[in-house]
Amino acid sequence: MRYLTAGESHGPQLTTIIEGLPSLLPITAEQINYDLKRRQGGHGRGRRMQIEKDLVEIVGGVRHGKTLGSPVALVVKNDDWKHWTKIMGADPLPEDVDPDEIKRQVSRPRPGHADLVGGMKYGHRDLRNVLERSSARETTVRVAVGSVAKLLLKELGISIVSHVTEIGGVKADPTKAEGKSADEIRKIVEEDPVYCLDPEASAKMVELIDETKKEGNSIGGVVEVIIEGLPAGIGSYVHYDRKLDGKLAQAMLSINAFKGVEFGLGFEMARKKGSDVHDEILWSEEEGYTRGTNRLGGLEGGMTTGMPIVVRGVMKPIPTLYKPLQSVDIETKEPFKASVERSDACAVPAASIVAENVIAWEMAKAIVEQFHSDQLPQLKAQIDEMRKYSKEF
Amino acid sequence: MRYLTAGESHGPQLTTIIEGLPSLLPITAEQINYDLKRRQGGHGRGRRMQIEKDLVEIVGGVRHGKTLGSPVALVVKNDDWKHWTKIMGADPLPEDVDPDEIKRQVSRPRPGHADLVGGMKYGHRDLRNVLERSSARETTVRVAVGSVAKLLLKELGISIVSHVTEIGGVKADPTKAEGKSADEIRKIVEEDPVYCLDPEASAKMVELIDETKKEGNSIGGVVEVIIEGLPAGIGSYVHYDRKLDGKLAQAMLSINAFKGVEFGLGFEMARKKGSDVHDEILWSEEEGYTRGTNRLGGLEGGMTTGMPIVVRGVMKPIPTLYKPLQSVDIETKEPFKASVERSDACAVPAASIVAENVIAWEMAKAIVEQFHSDQLPQLKAQIDEMRKYSKEF
Amino acid sequence: MRYLTAGESHGPQLTTIIEGLPSLLPITAEQINYDLKRRQGGHGRGRRMQIEKDLVEIVGGVRHGKTLGSPVALVVKNDDWKHWTKIMGADPLPEDVDPDEIKRQVSRPRPGHADLVGGMKYGHRDLRNVLERSSARETTVRVAVGSVAKLLLKELGISIVSHVTEIGGVKADPTKAEGKSADEIRKIVEEDPVYCLDPEASAKMVELIDETKKEGNSIGGVVEVIIEGLPAGIGSYVHYDRKLDGKLAQAMLSINAFKGVEFGLGFEMARKKGSDVHDEILWSEEEGYTRGTNRLGGLEGGMTTGMPIVVRGVMKPIPTLYKPLQSVDIETKEPFKASVERSDACAVPAASIVAENVIAWEMAKAIVEQFHSDQLPQLKAQIDEMRKYSKEF
Amino acid sequence: MRYLTAGESHGPQLTTIIEGLPSLLPITAEQINYDLKRRQGGHGRGRRMQIEKDLVEIVGGVRHGKTLGSPVALVVKNDDWKHWTKIMGADPLPEDVDPDEIKRQVSRPRPGHADLVGGMKYGHRDLRNVLERSSARETTVRVAVGSVAKLLLKELGISIVSHVTEIGGVKADPTKAEGKSADEIRKIVEEDPVYCLDPEASAKMVELIDETKKEGNSIGGVVEVIIEGLPAGIGSYVHYDRKLDGKLAQAMLSINAFKGVEFGLGFEMARKKGSDVHDEILWSEEEGYTRGTNRLGGLEGGMTTGMPIVVRGVMKPIPTLYKPLQSVDIETKEPFKASVERSDACAVPAASIVAENVIAWEMAKAIVEQFHSDQLPQLKAQIDEMRKYSKEF
């Protein structure tokens, strides 16, 4: 299973093609749009999020609400395209046009963005040619891809949810997640302005975001993704590049502005004794093998254990600030204070949706590749069988 | 560039084949053996590390000290193989053999290892069939592969080094690394019993390891890898799976017992303002573009910036404890206290070498794949040109 | 470099995303449309080709006529979509709809098509769900992808052309291609009704196609692709899956209805002595190394030699015949005479364009992956250098 | 499933690592050695084949006769290594050695080999550095890999066999294969000196080989591989690079000296009407869906139909001739008559074994990747189920 995305931030549309989905999977645009809306929400977003409402069109691979087995193509049109046609058009510029007038050329790289290095790499002295693609706008279609993955996981009895555990140093009480199912968590965070489980922390986060915005600064945070209902044995220990944790880590770090990832107790494991880190193995007639705890976050030896996967990612503060950072104009080589292209003070809630969806994709991909996945019904039967087999092992 | 490894912990040998190396790269077994020795060192290792001295043989792809461009095959023989021939031999057992006598069957899965899930996945009721491969013994050849990668990086003017920054909650003073080159760091950690830059912290770590060993427990820690001398523009922002940070994260998480990874300030970024996280862009005639700081750890937009890459990984405490954890015998379904197969109280120093080498491989791979890499001299010329181009951009 | 395609024959559009193109490559829709038109031409096409005129839209990755380095998205809309919206729509059918009325269900698999096995594989009892994707309609966007590849090759001084060498047993005189450049060949075949170099054979082919059509039958043929101006050393002998001939063969056999491929003298080599098959190596101050002949078709040891690549593919007669073949209705299990969905008597000329373009893609991909290909100017410089290096070797 | 190979023709050993095999597959060295012996046989081989007897050692991934699920490592030692240690050793040459004495340097590229272009590509002026790897000696381990694949196929009820259909223009009577099972074919060709089914043709082939040898020339030929017992639906039509015929074609063209491939009627399809090419679909209660003929060679829409796959490859005459070809010394630029490194007049019988085994690998790989393949028993059950499902469709 694989996908490609295309599209620039102010181009006509974002496009994605997903190849390798099982046939007979129910998909509707409505289900995907729900996630797109969640990605545009969260306290602390700038103006652009409010004016554009992303809607997906399914333009291939789905007929009468079900996947055909052929590649699925999704499109999210840019409502604002009419204002950008000249600036971002694919056609060569007519000879008599004054390029300065329509190109909105950017020669001032923003620290923390791909601008400068991207320009060097691809030979663009107009850094707009970089920032239009490196923009987090592209995560829109990655969320759409993840929505499709979640529909698949759901059919297999697997739930996935994300919540915000930290913003700008304000931490949610970790016990709030304990004992809650993915569905219960989803219900709570859907109602919370920063997609957080802990109402007290949430209030503080909102306050901090508002303050930060006022001072023209930005803040980052930590998001947690939980996957429930997994069969044991997805991934493998036999070769280094088949370990599931490695793949999930790559997925998390592929999100714009993410700088770290950890599973279960994560970096806390550097401060604990072995006897306080590992999860004891239990067995009962009714449930088969279980674990007393889930400190390792659902993975042992690069494989799912059957316990929930718990993985967190850290997002840096958005680098585009009203409070500007020093940089250098690549034409004049003069120093300047970096310009503002967008203005979210905090995008962590939105990023939690992106994280949930890219992790969902990676998980679905691992499952589809491990099993016979031509048709959904066959895949379902195998997952059930694997659950039974593991229990009776 | 790609490689495969094979071999079980007590099998005849570990084998690796590396495909895609440039021709004309100088390689000797001696250089690789140095890293293998470092991997076997560090305070806190058990008995096995002392009796086995790993030595590599080059059995393909190298002639008269230089790579041919053909795949390189490396072998590390198991000195102890003579004692394991019957137990681990490839030939079918003769019919008149009592399997119990020679199989050293394992039916008791150790928590925190691949044992139980691996057995389910591959249908092994003798869990030895799992643990022989899931053992960290396999990292021996991954270190060998990384040694070759480091020889390549060195030819390109790129240095890589690792050091231990935390063990069991004892943290090294982070300022000890400041202003030091990779070579300077290497000299210090080569002399340190736990491969740590900070002598005071090192002494405490040694003490803690000894105590932990006495109580039959284990501790984990954090290792940091630094890569210097990189040209800007390795990796790419244009597609999610081409981001270099994602690839390095996958590499780090592919190391046995690693549970998290972070770049630059890492998880601390969740606690800081944007103005304290991003690195300002400077420019001078002599140096071209530089950054005032390196908080992002050398990567922007999934690409190298030219600043050193700084990446850390967290290793959980080794799950094999004298102080046993509860588990279940898969035959009798009776609970038991998990048995001890190995006995390192702390493998973090050794793991720092593994981390250094797997990261070196991933970095070398990214470079080889981005450039014309048939021959080393051509590759060198391009890297130089890219450095010049970036400076003059 | 990679691409994915999506879209069903009667769906809203065909979509493709190309990832990994160098930046700064000039591309216009006009250039791609030229190939799309050629693909729809050729004597012997049915009615559908005449009513639909395929036009491409560039919806990502290109700005002001040049690639950005980001993925390129291309779309070919289906003009006839308004008549198929209900039949092929992505939305679930409303509950009160009579499915029989709008589904145009197919339960009768056509021999020689993917219908029957595709239905089994993906669980479709409505075989329309198979044939809509397995249709050669999809080659439209593969041709578009190849057009982009040809624009890249052209910038590197590499020309590629195809011509029809055989239809229904009528063979073109092979000497007609001798001594002609790719551009000269293109000029001739552009004017020929069956894209053939030999006017006498062409006239006979046209006649045969007309006869065959009258009798409700179909005929296949052979197409030849020639690539000129290649540097030596693309591909590699060092590992089996890096051989360029293998990759080109896979590309050719990935075209609908193609059943064989051969290089240079091809299957004739089974009938010749070694001394009549191999190409002697010559050298001169002015030209460097050359070959006296090109019987091997431009490849030795899985690598380009610098001589033109000559590769042929055989296309079977289109399986959809007015003269029907026996098959079985999957619902009733009753035998029937297979129905006609399309009616080209001969699609070999069109297939020559598909062949040219899929081979162009594979060749461009091999080059882009072997060299430093972030920017077109850097790639060009390397190719020139490689030509010089080979000459002076 | 993937594998890598390493090793030079006169190096210490050939090595391969196979990753992704199901666990619990029975494998013995004896079974692999049988194929290695067949590869060394066939009328027309030179002296080297007679003195070296290739034997495999299993050095990883197999315990007590069964795969573990971990990567399998195979080694074929070079018996003659003691005579080549200095010439091909991995260690740098001591400074006081006269390189001319021990290097056996080659400066004269042989037409039809990788020598010249390989030297240019990898910067080797000693062309031995090329020919040692580009030699067909490497196919030894590819045969070993294919043997393992055949053991897997056999467990799944799938048989594969090859036979020689043409040598130097002498064609076997194609009707000799009709109605024979793979096992019956194998029995006949095992007894034939040129692995041919037709005794009359075989006698002529032997005669022709002897004559050709006398005149210092060489001849090629055509080999056919047949795979029986396949379930329908391996491969896919949904994306161009998932078509099974493309993958098999790449495999065939990856064999040294192979220049073409065709399925079923192959190039003959260019001379036939559609009604004489396609295979009618039949159905009966007892057998389910069958085909009246097998002209398409077992593949439709890039998928297996359940009929035997029939694929042929053409091998060019071996380029190393006693009767020399003109070439150029790369040092002096003087023309010369190309030297003889080996002296087989005809390697087509041996190549038929290579073809059988590389096709077996590709087929096994396609199956393993399509199904849940962790354990052999689970894979077997799925293949059986798929057969049943297809029959009842």
Automatic annotation (TrEMBL), chains A, B, C, D:
It is an enzyme of class 4 (lyase). Pathway: Metabolic intermediate biosynthesis; chorismate biosynthesis; chorismate from D-erythrose 4-phosphate and phosphoenolpyruvate: step 7/7. Keywords: Amino-acid biosynthesis, Aromatic amino acid biosynthesis, FAD, Flavoprotein, FMN, Lyase, NADP. Reduced FMN (FMNH(2)). It catalyses: 5-O-(1-carboxyvinyl)-3-phosphoshikimate = chorismate + phosphate. Its cofactor is FMNH2. GO terms for biological process: amino acid biosynthetic process; aromatic amino acid family biosynthetic process; chorismate biosynthetic process. Its EC number is 4.2.3.5. The keyword Transport does not apply. GO terms for cellular component: cytosol. NADP(+) binds at R39, R45. Coiled coil: none annotated. GO terms for molecular function: chorismate synthase activity; FMN binding. This reaction introduces a second double bond into the aromatic ring system. Homotetramer. This is Chorismate synthase.
